[in-house]
Amino acid sequence: MIFELFTIPMPPTPFNATKPCFQLCVRLTPAASALAVRESNLKSAISVHLASKLQKLLMLSSHRRLLLSKLVHLGPDLGLPPNFRSRLCNDHPEKFKTVNTSYGRALELVSWDQELAQPLTFFKDDSHDLIVDRPLKFKRIKLRKGLNLKRFHEAFLIKFNELPGICPYTVPSEELAKESMEAEKRACAVVREVLGMTVERRTLIDHLTHFRKDFGLPNKMRSMIIRHPELFYVSVKGQRDSVFLVESYNGKGELLERDPSLVFKDELMMLVREGKKLRREKRKGRLSYSTIGESTTYVAEDDEEQLSYTEEDYDDGFENLFDSVDSDIEEDYGDADYGENDEHLEVGSRGEFWIAVCDSAPSGAGSHLESW
């Protein structure tokens, strides 16, 4: 349960000066309120950690400056609060500052932190799940289960992994030749660093394209990400593609290291499921039925979950909102009697409303009535 309804008294008004009036309000339940307080305390405690993420992004950029309008797209994935442009960016003047540019407000790096300028370490797994423990005759690259590559693609990845590591913080993209394997090595390292800062180790590819020029990424960045399945996984579900950091997930698709903010999201979903469970049990307490014509079909309690929600099953607390004796709403339908003098036709009778005299009949035959 997340929300609950309550009423508060209202002062008398000229239209209702004698009767008390109450106003319906909504508030958080004690469990949801305690969860919100814990989440607020966590955000205050990790403020320095979030500032370090922004500082690392500025250190990755070529000009040590990023537009705030671009950081807004990546902010939720990094775990930044919605008001980070006015609060977080101004609370750490020793790390960065906001400046005005011709393209708008931007965040500029103030100090370089050598401890933060360390790329993520690669996890090397030398086991190849072989029956006999012996050195391999041919070079192989370990991929996730169910992924098969063509021979020339696998040979390219083996050659790519044999290249020495390139630090994206100290090696600018201008020093490397475009469309070279070294430049692609650095671009993959940049994407890997950004994904490592996110809460769920994933983000949209469209969000990364906003920083293509700032981080020195290639124009065909999506093709580059798909070309390296040993590092990234691209999901095409939804309207926009998402990229995941493969090394942060296990074989079942679960995060190896969960962010503390994800714990509060799980607890919030537990409260939502608990509220649905209580409402389902409340519906099970009474017998439901559906009437079709003159026959009534009764439904057992075990089969009630298969029924769709109806107005009678849904209880939101507003049924008796206007049934109170203190309500000022009075229904007055008047004393008009409808249909007292109406003449109704019997079933099977023929009623003629429009008639006309037909003058085209032959003389002597008389006139007859023809219905329209």
UniProtKB/TrEMBL annotation:
Show the Pfam families listed in the entry: PORR
List the InterPro entries: PORR_domain, PORR_fam
Kindly give the PANTHER family that the UniProt entry links to this protein. Answer: PROTEIN WHAT'S THIS FACTOR 1 HOMOLOG, CHLOROPLASTIC, UBIQUITIN CARBOXYL-TERMINAL HYDROLASE FAMILY PROTEIN
What domain of life is recorded for the organism? Eukaryota
Example GO molecular function: RNA binding
Q: What is the lineage of its organism?
A: Eukaryota, Viridiplantae, Streptophyta, Embryophyta, Tracheophyta
Q: Return the protein name.
A: PORR domain-containing protein
> Where does the PORR domain lie?
3-276
